[in-house]
């Protein structure tokens, strides 16, 4: 793992992580989100789908956001009433995964476009996916997963 800049806090009931955007750090990101979901007592059946969506988003950042060199992923996750929320930010090239067309599965294999399944998983496994770009703050992807009732303990 690349530990050149790792910062993790649980201030104000949010798990926050800032880490170098590279594929070697995906397992740490996975662990942080998994731990946050376990502490929030989220149904174990939901966790793998959320983790896959987060993994796909962070993989895209690590592979494509910073073609000129290294950059960072800022991740925060928290429980917001009945939703588990994940915010993923980077200052790499602007890219809106919500604008990508979903793949067609009924086309002949030879006619299908390569790629796009990760974004499909993000949008399919999460209940809400939104994106915004600010020239000063960069890309912000927010994903929400409905996880149950309001009586769940906060993080």
Topology:
Blueprint: E1 7-9, E2 14-20, H1 26-39, H2 47-65, E3 72-80, E4 83-90, H3 117-125, E5 128-134, E6 138-146
Antiparallel strand pairs: 1-2, 2-3, 3-4, 4-6, 5-6
Helix pairs in contact: 1-2, 2-3
Structure summarized in a few sentences:
This protein is an alpha+beta fold and 155 residues long. It has helices spanning 26-39, 47-65, 117-125; strands spanning 7-9, 14-20, 72-80, 83-90, 128-134, 138-146.
Description:
- Helices cover 27% and strands 28% of the residues.
- The protein is an alpha+beta fold and 155 residues long.
- It is built from three helices and six strands; from the N terminus they run ββααββαββ.
- The protein has helices at residues 26-39, 47-65, 117-125, and strands at residues 7-9, 14-20, 72-80, 83-90, 128-134, 138-146.
- The chain has a single domain, classed as Heat Shock Protein 90.
- Strand 3 (72-80) and strand 4 (83-90) form a beta hairpin.
- A six-stranded antiparallel β-sheet has the order 1-2-3-4-6-5, covered by helices on one side.
Number of strands: 6
Q: Give the tally of structural domains.
A: 1
The structural class is alpha+beta
Mean pLDDT over the full residue set? 83
CATH architecture: 2-Layer Sandwich
Roughly how much helix do the residues carry, as a percent range? Answer: 25-40%
The 3D shape can be described as globular
Count of helical segments?
3
SSE sequence, one letter per element: EEHHEEHEE
CATH class category name: Alpha Beta
Distance between the termini: 26 Å
Give the low-pLDDT segments: 1-8
What's the CATH H-level homologous superfamily? Histidine kinase-like ATPase, C-terminal domain
Rg on CA atoms, Å: 16 Å
For this structure, the CATH topology is Heat Shock Protein 90
Largest sheet: 6 strands, antiparallel
């Amino acid at each position: 793992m690349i530990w050149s800049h790792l910062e993790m806090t649980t201030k104000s009931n949010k798990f926050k992580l800032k880490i170098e955007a590279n594929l070697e750090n995906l397992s740490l990101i996975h662990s942080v989100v998994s731990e946050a979901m376990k502490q929030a007592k989220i149904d174990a059946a939901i966790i793998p789908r959320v983790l896959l969506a987060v993994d796909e988003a962070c993989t895209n950042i690590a592979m494509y956001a910073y073609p000129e060199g290294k950059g960072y992923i800022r991740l925060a996750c928290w429980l917001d009433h009945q939703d588990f929320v994940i915010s993923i930010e980077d200052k790499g090239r602007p890219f809106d995964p919500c604008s990508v067309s979903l793949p067609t599965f009924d086309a002949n294999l030879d006619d299908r476009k390569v790629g796009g399944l990760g974004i499909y998983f993000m949008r399919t496994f999460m209940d809400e996916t939104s994106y915004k770009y600010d020239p000063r703050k960069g890309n912000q992807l927010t994903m929400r997963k409905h996880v149950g009732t309001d009586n769940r303990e906060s993080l």
